[in-house]
Amino acid sequence: MKHLLDKIETRQQLIRETAGQLRELIALLTEQLTAAERTLERLDITRATMLELAAEDGIEPPEPLPPGYREVLATCEQAGHGLRAREICEILGIGTEPRHTESVRPKLKRLVDRDILTEPEPGLFTLSRPTPSSPAESG
């Protein structure tokens, strides 16, 4: 009987230690969650303020890009140079068969239509660079 009670006591101690470790982890995650929520709240306020200011100036806010477009754009931004549809597919790890490149190409063309990307030569896509403003405009 003592042997069984010792096993139970050993198991209880192990579970107490595990519970303590989990409480510490929960506390850490709670801190991280609180910080993330504060940052998100600040970003929401910043976004709302910018939209209000833009509306006061009669500026239409741009439509957000769907996820697939954001990934393509991020790839172009990270590369820092012109890319072709096949290269983008390789970087994104989605395959390079024609069906893959032909699904990316229209996204690239739409980003060109929105003046986010340029196509300096057929099939080569780069980020649009804002034109430097003249001294009269920047003042």
Description:
By secondary structure, the protein is mainly alpha-helical. The chain is built from five helices and two strands, in the order H-H-H-H-E-E-H. It has helices at residues 2-56, 67-79, 85-92, 98-113, 135-138; strands at residues 117-121, 124-127. It has a two-stranded antiparallel sheet. A hairpin with a 2-residue loop joins strand 1 (117-121) and strand 2 (124-127). Helix 2 crosses helix 4 (98-113) and helix 3 packs across helix 4. The protein starts with a helix and ends with a helix. Mean pLDDT is 88; it is low at 131-139.
Summarize the entry for a quick read.
The protein has five helices and two strands. It is mainly alpha-helical and 139 residues long.
Look at the structure and give the mean pLDDT.
88
**Shape, please?**
elongated
C-alpha end-to-end distance: 88 Å
What's the total count of β strands?
2
Q: pLDDT below 50 for ≥5 consecutive residues: which ranges? A: 131-139
Tally of separate helices: 5
Strand content: 5-15%
Side by side, the strands of the main sheet go 1-2
Residues in helices, as a percent range: 55-70%
Helix-strand topology string: HHHHEEH
Instruction: Specify the structural class.
Output: mainly alpha
Using only C-alpha atoms, the radius of gyration works out to 27 Å
| Biggest β-sheet strands, sense, barrel | 2 strands, antiparallel
